[in-house]
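Weekly modeling sync, notes
Attendees: S.R. (lead), two postdocs, one rotation student

Agenda item 3: backlog of single-chain predictions. S.R. asked that every request posted to the team notebook include the full sequence so nobody has to chase files. The rotation student volunteered to paste the first one in as an example of the format we agreed on. Action items at the bottom.

Example entry:
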Amino acid sequence: MSDLSLGVIMAIFGAGLATVMAGIGSIVGIGYPARAAAGGLSEDPRRFGSLFLLVVLPGTQGFY
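Predicted structure, as returned to the notebook:
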């Protein structure tokens, strides 16, 4: 631990925090249209092809 300066530790923490916050923001942001698409799909199942991408997009957030 003596080899790492406070600046390096803060840089690593900042990079991790930026990654986590960006992931959370992305998940929250894509969750709203997915819920709306799922609601629309339950009302009109014929629109499955056009709404499928919005419904499954939140599940792909783990790939980032």
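Discussion: group reviewed the output briefly. The mean pLDDT is 82.
Action items: rotation student to repeat for the remaining queue; S.R. to check formatting next week.
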